[in-house]
Design a protein that fits this description.
Elements: H1 4-34, E1 37-45, E2 48-55, H2 63-76, E3 83-88, E4 97-98
Parallel strand pairs: 2-3
Antiparallel strand pairs: 1-2, 1-4
Helix pairs in contact: 1-2
Length: about 100
């Protein structure tokens, strides 16, 4: 019985990653695309979520506002302690997944 919480924790972690990917795919990417942007999930590292914005979002001064007022609240529905780091540019980080 002592092993049950550890297994539950691992299962919850997997589901949080799946939920974050789903939010990126079904909610955030379509919003970003309406302005001609592209959303990439670069990586998840514990509570840290790394997002890259490209397309018309590359270098846009509004990207920080998008991160704080759109991306962060959406991701916190799945991961309440999430910290979001948003980068922008034409160069896509290696290993980033486009949504």
């Amino acid at each position: 019985m002592q092993d049950a919480p550890a297994r539950l924790h691992v299962s919850q972690q997997g589901s949080v990653k799946d939920q974050i990917a789903k939010i990126c795919r079904e909610i955030l990417a379509p919003i970003v695309r309406t302005d001609g942007g592209e959303l990439y999930l670069v990586r998840l590292d514990g509570d840290d979520v790394y997002i890259h914005l490209a397309g018309t979002c590359a270098g846009c001064p509004g990207a920080s506002l998008t991160g704080d007022k759109v991306i962060l609240p959406a991701l916190r529905t799945a991961a309440p302690k999430a910290r979001v780091f948003v980068t922008t540019g034409v160069k896509i980080p290696d290993g980033a997944e486009k949504f």
